[in-house]
């Protein structure tokens, strides 16, 4: 009987401990902080790929006109249990953090600074999270019409404290702040493989060299611009070396190249064309590979800024190829592209 009594006592103790442990998990184990879901990359920003024009599932323009788009930024309530309160999250512009990042990254290279894109973006100053909701979506609207992507546009925002103290802002800056490097895209923009594109001094064509890639930046729905030759966004005078390319056609057609800078002395033979090829992935049956191939690229320009009072003439020839990976399980093409970081 004594052993039975001891066993019953031990069993009762274990049940009490078990109940106590289970009760602990019904209570919040951490502070419920408010955060953005905007992880930073090695450049200190979050890359966002946003369509130049947002479309509905049926292909119509979401906001009624070309150049208008949006992005839904997740706002998160952290913690171990579900949010049980109605919360009004305050969102504010954060120019100071962008200024700090620019100096930390680029020192006195003002030409490389990220540019605040607040003039091209709007968002609500508050976001309501209802009881039972752990995630809300901040609707950021963009008007990309006439934006010049020579500038490296970043939208800096932060979770602002609530004057009434109804929530806690995440104390870690990587979560309470968002530095959104926005890349608007159309069907023809992105990083083209340029391994079959060569650049040569006009007086020495035999010593042409290849390039790795050429980035195309959005101008409008069917137009992009490249930087001439091997100029890229790290080049101080890059704005003077823009070459425009307009794609004429559907799945194939011509490409019209031109420059609006007469000092570039840009010329071309107007024989460039493009085609779009598609094939399904051999391993992932839902994944489609879309290739835009630009043939017969052939243009000349002068570098007139590298050496004072001296022009160097270059010839660029070859082919450019852009690959997009499309998730065919997603109906709306605006959300179906799988972007590589």
Automatic annotation (TrEMBL):
Pfam families: BT_3044-like_C, DUF4973. Residues 1-23 form the signal peptide. Residues 177-321 form the BT-3044-like C-terminal domain. Residues 25-163 form the DUF4973 domain. Keywords: Signal. The keyword Ion transport does not apply. This is DUF4973 domain-containing protein.
């Amino acid at each position: 009987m004594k052993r039975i009594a001891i066993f019953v006592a031990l069993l009762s103790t274990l049940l009490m401990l078990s109940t106590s442990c289970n009760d602990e998990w019904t209570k919040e184990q951490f502070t419920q902080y408010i955060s953005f879901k905007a992880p930073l990359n090695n450049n200190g920003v979050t890359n966002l790929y946003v369509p130049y024009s947002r479309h509905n599932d049926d292909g119509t323009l979401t906001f009624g006109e070309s150049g208008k788009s949006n992005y839904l930024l997740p706002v998160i309530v952290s913690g171990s249990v579900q949010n049980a309160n109605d919360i009004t999250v305050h969102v504010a512009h954060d120019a100071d953090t962008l200024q700090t990042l620019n100096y930390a990254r680029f020192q006195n290279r003002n030409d490389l600074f990220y540019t605040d894109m607040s003039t091209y973006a709007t968002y609500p100053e508050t976001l309501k999270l209802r009881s039972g909701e752990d995630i809300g979506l901040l609707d950021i609207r963009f008007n990309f019409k006439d934006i010049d992507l020579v500038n490296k546009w970043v939208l800096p925002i932060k979770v602002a404290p609530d004057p009434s103290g109804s929530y806690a802002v995440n104390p870690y800056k990587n979560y309470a702040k968002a530095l959104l490097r926005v890349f608007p895209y159309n069907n023809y923009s992105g990083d083209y493989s340029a391994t079959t594109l060569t650049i040569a001094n006009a007086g020495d064509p035999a010593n042409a060299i290849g390039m790795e890639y050429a980035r195309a930046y959005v101008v409008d729905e069917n137009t992009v611009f490249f930087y001439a030759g091997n100029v890229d966004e790290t080049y101080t005078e890059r704005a003077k070396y823009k070459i425009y390319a307009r794609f004429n056609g559907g799945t194939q057609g011509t490409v019209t190249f031109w420059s609006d800078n007469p000092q570039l002395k840009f010329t071309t033979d107007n024989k460039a064309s493009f085609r779009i090829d598609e094939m399904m992935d051999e391993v992932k049956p839902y994944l489609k590979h879309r290739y835009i191939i630009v043939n017969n690229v052939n243009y000349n320009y002068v570098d007139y800024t590298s050496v004072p009072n001296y022009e160097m003439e270059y010839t660029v020839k070859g082919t450019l190829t852009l690959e997009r990976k499309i998730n065919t399980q997603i109906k709306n093409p605006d959300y179906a592209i799988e972007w590589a970081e």
